[in-house]
Amino acid sequence: MIIRIHLFIIRWLERIMPIPKYQQTILPLLKLLSDGKRYTNQEIHENLSIHFKIYEEEKEITQTNETQSLFQKRLGWGKYFLERAGLIEVKNQETLITQLGRDLLKQNPEELNKEFLMSIPQFTTAVGKTKSMENQGLESIMANSFFEIRKKMEGKILETLRETSSYHFEKGIKEMLGKMGYKIGEVTSWGGDGGITGIIFDDELGINEVFLVVKRCNKIVPDKEINAFTDSIGEKELTKGIFITTSDFSKEQKKFVDSLYYKITLLNGEDLAGFMYDYGVGFKTLNSYDIKKLDKNYFSN
Question: What is the pTM of this model?
Answer without folding.
Answer: 0.57
